[in-house]
Write a structure and sequence with these properties.
Blueprint (H helix, E strand, L loop, with lengths): L3 E11 L3 E6 L3 H14 L3 H6 L9 E6 L6 H15 L4 E4 L1 E9 L2 E9 L6
Antiparallel strand pairs: 1-2, 1-4, 2-3, 5-6
């Protein structure tokens, strides 16, 4: 799969506990997601638990109550995202970064997988 352009857009939320920036409609990000899920082959239970495939909603998480924020801070984060980040950027997606969990809920970069290189 080749690299592609991705545009961020207005903030949204999952309930009152997660604030995110939406991703503009883009078939490439959906195709990349499908390929990654197909390569990993998770069980149907995991697909359902993590809202994968048809339930997948591309986004960039800004914050969540799980990380220690309260619901008021989540709403404020959404407002600040509009004030501070608009106009929302478009950027090139040239690789997939894989993270490794080094302790509970702490991740570090593990590998970058470039897009646009054919498997042989």
């Amino acid at each position: 799969m080749q690299g592609f352009q991705l545009s961020l857009s207005e903030p949204g939320s999952f309930g009152s506990s997660v604030a995110f920036l939406s991703v503009g409609t883009n078939k490439d990000v959906l195709e990349l997601h499908k390929r990654l899920v197909d390569a990993i082959s998770p069980s149907q239970e995991l697909l359902d638990d993590y809202f994968e495939m048809d339930k997948y909603h591309p986004h960039l998480t800004l914050g969540q109550t799980y990380w220690g924020l309260n619901e008021t801070e989540i709403q404020e984060m959404k407002r600040l995202a509009i004030d501070e980040l608009a106009p929302f950027p478009t950027f090139a997606v040239n690789n997939v970064r894989v993270y490794k969990e080094v302790e509970s809920n702490k991740y570090v970069p593990f590998a970058d997988i470039p897009l646009g290189i054919s498997a042989k």
